[in-house]
Amino acid sequence: MLPAQQAEDLILSLVKPLNAQQNCEMIDLLAASGRILAESVIGQLDFPHWDNSAMDGYAVRFDDVQACTAESPAVLQVIEEIPAGYVPQKTVQAGQAARILTGSMMPAGADTVVIQEVTKREGDRLSILSAPQPQAFVRHRATFYQSGTPLLPAGLTLSAPEIAVLAAAQCTQVKVYRRPRVAILSTGSELVEPDQPLQPGQIVDSNQYALAALVAQSGAEPLLLGIVPDHPEALKGAIANAISTADLVLSSGGVSVGDYDYVDRILADLGAQLHIRAVAVKPGKPLTVATFQKNQTSESAVPLLYFGLPGNPVSALVSFWRFVQPALRKLSGQPDGWRPVFVEGRSLYPLKSDGKRESYLWGKLRLTNGAYEFHLATGSHSSGNLINLAQTNALAVVPVGQTLIPAGDSVQIMQVGSPCR
Ligand code: AMP
Ligand code: MG
C-alpha cells in the first residue's frame, strides 16, 4: 500500500500534458470561460490606443500655464469641446485650450491636462488658477501595453479578468486546448441506471453521475460508457473500447480483492502497466492506476492513464478529488497548480480514525473571522454512506498513527470546493 503523497507524486509523474499543437481548437471568446490558452496571445492594439485624458478638464500647452497662480491666472481661449468618442478637429495653439472629458483623445498641440476644479470659465474664456505638473493627467499611447508584444501567456486558464483583456484587445477568437476526453464506466452486476426501476438486490449507479459532474467541473469532457456487469469478457470489451476513445479512463468498482473483482487482471491482459493497486487512505484504499502506451509507432506517444476507482460512492469521490483531479489538471494543459490545496484550520468536532491509514473525513470548511473552521458532516463516515456527503467542500485529514484529533485542535484540511462564510 502506497502512502498518499507517494501515490500523488507517482500519478503526476505518469501524466504527460496534451500537446498544445495537436490538441487545440479556436473558440469564441464568449465560450472561453474556464478554458486554457494553447498559445500566447499577441495583441494588435496599443493600450491606451491614443493619448487621452485621465480627468475632466482642459487640454493645454504646459508652457502657457506653468507659472500661473490664483492671483495671476493664465487666461486661455477655449477652441473646442472634446467629448468621449470625438476626434479633435483643431490644434491647440499658444494661448488656447480645449475642453476635454475623461478618456477623450488629446488634441494636437496640447501636452497637459488641467483639472476643471482649478479653472474658472466664462464663455470661451478660461482662467487657470493653479499650475499643473508637465504632462499631468495625460495617459500616453502604449504606456500600458505595446502592440506586438505578448499580452497573455499560453497555459493561462481564462476567467473574467483575462476575458476582459482579450475582449479589449479585440481577440474574439482564442486558441485553447481541447478538453480532455474522460471515459467513465461503472462495473458491477448489481448496478442499475438511476432512471430505471430498482429490483431487490440491485444498487443504483450513482458513481457515473457523480464522476461525470466532477469531470465536467474539472474542465474535461465526460464520455459516459454505462454499466458493465462483472463478466470478464464484457469488461474486457468495455475497457478496450474506453481506452481507444479517451485520453483518460475512470472505472469504478471491481478493483478490490473480491471474487468478482476482475479489473486489474483485465488491464494486465490488455497490455497495461500497473503502477498502483492500493493506497494507504481511508476511504479509497483499493485504487488501481495503470497506463497504456498509445500510438506506439508515433513520435508523440502519449501514455493513457487508467484509474480503477473503488466502487463505494464516497471512496470513488474522495479518490477522484485526491488523485484524479491533479492528473486531469496536468493533462489538460495547466502549467502548474495541479496538486490538491490543503489549508490549516481548527476542527469544531473530534475527528476519529483507526490510525492505520490516512483518513479523510468529509464536511464543511468555513472561513470565520479570517480563520478556517472545519465542521464534520453529521452521520456515519462509512465509505458506503453517501447520504451525508451533500454540501461537502472539504476533507479533514487524520494522519497515519493518529486515532483522534480532539475538537478545537488544528488539522490539515483538503479543499474540494470554495469555503463558505
Ligand atoms: P466494489 O468496489 O465493486 O467492491 O464495490 C463496493 C461497493 O460499492 C458495493 O457495495 C457496490 O455495490 C458499490 N458500488 C459499486 N459501484 C457502484 C456505483 N457505480 N454506484 C454506486 N455504488 C456502487
Ligand atoms: Mg463490484
Entry summary:
With 421 residues, this protein is α/β, with parallel strands linked by helices. The protein has four domains: 4-22 and 178-331, MoaB/Mog-like domain (Molybdenum Cofactor Biosythetic Enzyme, Chain A, 3-Layer(aba) Sandwich), CATH 3.40.980.10; 27-47 and 146-177, Molybdopterin biosynthesis moea protein, domain 2 (Alpha-Beta Complex); 52-139, Molybdopterin biosynthesis moea protein, domain 3 (Molybdopterin biosynthesis moeA protein, domain 3, Beta Complex); 342-415, MoeA, C-terminal, domain IV (Beta-clip, Beta Barrel). The chain is 18% helix and 32% strand.
What would you note in describing this structure?
The chain is an alpha/beta fold. The protein has four domains: 4-22 and 178-331, Molybdenum Cofactor Biosythetic Enzyme, Chain A, CATH 3.40.980.10; 27-47 and 146-177, Molybdopterin biosynthesis moea protein, domain 2 (Alpha-Beta Complex); 52-139, Beta Complex (Molybdopterin biosynthesis moeA protein, domain 3), CATH 2.170.190.11; 342-415, MoeA, C-terminal, domain IV (Beta-clip, Beta Barrel). The protein contains seven helices and 28 strands. It has helices at residues 4-14, 62-65, 160-168, 207-217, 232-245, 263-269, 313-331, and strands at residues 24-28, 41-42, 52-53, 57-60, 74-82, 96-100, 112-115, 119-122, 125-128, 138-139, 150-152, 173-177, 181-187, 191-192, 203-204, 221-228, 248-252, 273-278, 281-282, 286-293, 303-309, 342-347, 351-352, 358-368, 371-376, 394-398, 404-405, 410-415. The strands form eight sheets. The protein has a six-stranded mixed β-sheet. A six-stranded mixed β-sheet has the order 16-13-17-21-20-18, sandwiched between helices. Strands 22-25-24-26-28 form a five-stranded mixed barrel. It is elongated and about 100 Å long. Adenosine monophosphate (AMP) binds at residues 186, 188, 190-191, 203, 205-207, 252-254, 256, 258, 310-313. Adenosine monophosphate binds next to loops.
